Amino acid sequence: MPETTAGTALGTANVSPLPPAESPPRHRWWILAVIGLAQLMVVLDGTIVNIALPSAQQDLGFSDGDRQWVVTAYALAFGSLLLLGGRIADLFGRKMTFLVGLVGFAGMSAIGGAATSFEMLIVARAGQGVFGALLAPAALSLLTTTFTDAKERAKAFGVYGAIAGAGGAIGLLLGGLLTEHLDWRWTLYVNLLFAAFAFVGGVLLLQRTTRDKNARIDIPGAVLVGGGLFCLVYGFSNAESHDWSSPQTWGFLLAGIVLLAAFTWWQTRATHPLLPLRILLDRNRGASFVSILISGAGMFGVFLFLTYYLQQSLGYTPVKTGLAFLPMTASLMLSATLATSLLIPRFGPRPIVPLGMGLAAAGMVWLTGLDLNSGYAAHILPPLIVAGLGLGLVIAPAMSLATDGVRAEDSGVASAAVNTMQQVGGSLGTALLNTLFSSAVTNYLDGKNPKDPAVLAQAGLEGYSTAYWWSAAFFTAGLVVSVLLYRRGVPAKNPSAAPVVHM
Questions:
Q1: Which of 171, 390, 167 is nearest to 298 (CA)?
Q2: Which of 231, 363, 364, 365 is least enclosed, having the fewest CB within 10 Å?
Q3: Which residues pair with 95 in a beta bridge?
Q4: Are 259 and 220 in contact (CB under 8 A)?
Q5: Averaged confidence pLDDT in the chain
Q6: Is 370 helix (H, G, I), strand (E, B) or coil?
Q7: Radius of gyration of the chain (CA)
Q8: Cα–Cα distance for residue pair 249/175, rounded to 1 Å
Q9: Which of 207, 242, 273 is the endpoint of a domain?
Q10: Where is average pLDDT lowest: 256-260, 343-347, 351-355, 408-412?
Q11: Which residues contact 389 (CB under 8 A, 6 or more apart)?
């Protein structure tokens, strides 16, 4: 069956000649609902288990040192395999890859929910990451090829970007509800419901694509990039439990850099490269990848540390903590929709994405003033709304521009690169901010009585403030980079070359 994709020209992006016009899928908005549901499942699984961790730890009896691996196992598998998953989607068909990813993700979620040991839970979480790496790039690629009209595509990416940005907050709320009213295992079992609806919708609505039998998977490239990303995330994760001078920290970070450099070199030599470098060479697209990476790292300054602050410093319940994030989610969805449907088509990305970075940085700086007497409406809500508005202006436009104008055969791997940037950014941000938080707490307690509750509470505030300042630094760097990299003006459209239909 013919496959439709957006092929607008962006800079030096190559675009196929315009074939006879073909109407977009009739049920495309239902397809958006299916893709959005699957993406929500993948994104919220990065945070939904966080609130359930204390209950899972008590039930399965694992140590504080092992606790981080419940989160990291998912992030490591997901982030390190996304590019391979994107290429598999291109080679074996996006619909088939999407459905296999759904079934596998649901199966691993069921195993995790039924876990009787720490090892079983970790294997299941890593398995979720593996199948998520198939599912996420296939979902974004399907979105790219389903919406070919520029205005409709902008609206669809506005919704998708809002889901990607708000999924973490939704995961916190849903995790709190399930843990408080049912059991920690339901933070994993709930994926069966998400997957069932998305699978039925995918079978009924998605068009099947033909497989390119002449293409091959770049196995050396997959090993190099997978190993490089694994070493980077693992090295930063070790920085929390080891010192920065430990070989288990700097050794893995150095190995990651070397492997990724080797991967880049190999992509210029490979016959069927895993990540064709032409995807990265467009200026707007490269700027979008960097913006997604930085926003992913900075975003965890909100979700992770504000969650701890609300529960440990202010005594919020898990459900109340999740509810506290809802205004931020709403503001993020509003600005994401406005950015892709109104602002980017009128002003282009260069003023809009940096504005979003600046607002997010301002929200982080505002949060540094929180203390043990801060009220929600007066002190917590305003910076949350500001940060949400900023994130929406960054995430949705960057995701749309990162996949706009790529060749149809590259849409899966381009989509995977987007997800890789967001996931790796989040993983590195979590590990780095955790380390900075712990160092700030340790430094504050030096010479003080660590058994005094008031001292401990103040040490926590010192740690949170440090994490927010560093998140603000990430977003400030993102502001500078996006100003320098994005082109002036509205992205060029070539009316004689879009949409493109490939057989």
A1: 390
A2: 365
A3: none
A4: no
A5: 78
A6: coil
A7: 22
A8: 31
A9: 273
A10: 408-412
A11: 331, 332, 334, 335, 356, 359
Pair of tokens at residue 170:
């939704």
For residue range 8-66, list pLDDT tens digits in order.
Answer: 332 333 333 433 334 566 677 888 888 888 878 877 776 777 777 777 877 887 765 56
CB atoms within 10 A of CB 244: 12
pLDDT of the residue at 386:
94
**pLDDT value at residue 502:** 27
Grouping H, G, I as helix, E, B as strand and the rest as coil, residue 384 is: helix
How many other CB atoms are found less than 10 A from the CB of residue 217? 14
Q: Identify whether residues 413 and 363 lie together within a single domain.
A: yes
If you ran DSSP here, which 8-state letter would residue 213 be given?
T
Residues 315 and 329 in one domain: yes
Phi and psi angles of residue 352, each rounded to the nearest 5 degrees, phi first: -80, -50
Look up the CATH number of the domain holding residue 31: 1.20.1250.20
- Give per-residue pLDDT as tens, 420-459: 787 778 777 777 787 788 778 888 887 777 777 888 888 8
Interhelix angle 453-485/411-445, rounded to 10 degrees, is 140
Spatial separation of the C-alpha atoms in residues 77 and 68, rounded to whole Å? 14
Range of the domain at 113: 27-217+274-489
| Coil, helix or strand at residue 292 | helix
pLDDT at 107 (0 to 100): 93
Give residue 395's Cα distance to chain centre. Answer: 10
Tell whether pTM > 0.85: no
What pLDDT sits at residue 359?
94
Q: Is residue 440 located within the same domain as residue 348?
A: yes
More confident residue, 367 or 434: 367
pLDDT(220) > 60: yes
Task: Report d(CA 16, CA 24) in Å as an integer.
Answer: 18
As a whole number of angstroms, the distance between CA 87 and CA 202 comes to: 20
The answer, yes or no, to whether the previous bond of 24 is cis (omega within 30 of 0) is: no
C-alpha to C-alpha distance for 212 and 360, rounded to whole angstroms: 43
DSSP state of 368: T
